[in-house]
Amino acid sequence: MFDERPLRADVAAVRDTHAPDALVYDTERDFEVLPTSALTDLTMVVDDVEPRGYDPAWLPADHPEILDQLVGDDVIVGAPGDGSIAWTIQTDPPIVLVKPRIEGSPDDFVAFLVAEALVQVGLDLPEHFLGFFRDVYADFAAATPTDPTTTYQLALAATDAYIGLHTRDVFAGWAETDDRASLHAAWVDAGERIQPRLSGLGRAVASGETSFTDAAELAAAGVKHDLDLPAPFDALDDPAYREHGARYAVAWAERVFS
Questions:
Q1: Of 155, 46, 26, whose CA–CA distance to 102 is shortest?
Q2: Average pLDDT, whole number, for the chain?
Q3: Per-residue DSSP letters for 23-54?
Q4: What residues are paired with 27 via a beta bridge?
Q5: Per-residue CA distances from 75 to 37, 83, 247, 250 (Å)
Q6: What is the structure's pLDDT at 176?
Q7: What Pfam families would the database entry show (predicted)?
Q8: Can you tell me the distance from the alpha carbon of 1 to that of 82, in angstroms, rounded to the nearest whole number?
Q9: Residue 85: strand, helix, or coil
Q10: Rounded to the nearest 10 degrees, what angle do helices 107-122 and 9-18 cross at?
Q11: Omega before 232 cis (within 30°)?
């Protein structure tokens, strides 16, 4: 199920700086939440496993069934909507898992995504949106008059924006280190590809061309790449969000949907 992934020198340098003990593995198959059957294989490549135990009481009564996979006392690695890379600090040492779906992406972009995961591990950021919101998620859902799946997607976007507020200074700093110039260039290039879509985002939402949820996801990417955001998403690019976290996200949702 797992094969150790060779790391480029620049990615290895990021690991040495931010998460020196972390392991990086390719997975044999794609997953949203790592199957229980694969956890046995995972215990063969790490020294210890300690479940985080997300509390079922954190979920509002009306929530997508997929979220039931995230609660309880089991080791949960990954979540629906995670993308090509998952990571966890529920293992000792921490582990980053690269899924097969990433194949075909440009090498520099893949290297950036792996490096990004290592930075997140080192900053001890929340692995899942539920680890970010915790018992405040019910308040976020109450402030968001959308169907449960859309509410979940908005919560993912809000969590990604929060994480981006923490990681982007690291990415920007790579411009000053010769051994990570390619990673910095990949971060900048991805941001330049997003910027044109952000520039017309307000009009696209108003016209119905883009859903509010898709716009929030794009805005969260904009936070990570330190781009200018239109209202009301610009409020997610605020030092107060970094300081106050989930409660700020609830207040933002209340203002947006009031």
A1: 26
A2: 92
A3: EEEEESS--SSPPHHHHHHHHTTSSEE-----
A4: 2
A5: 12, 19, 26, 27
A6: 87
A7: DUF7089
A8: 19
A9: strand
A10: 10
A11: yes
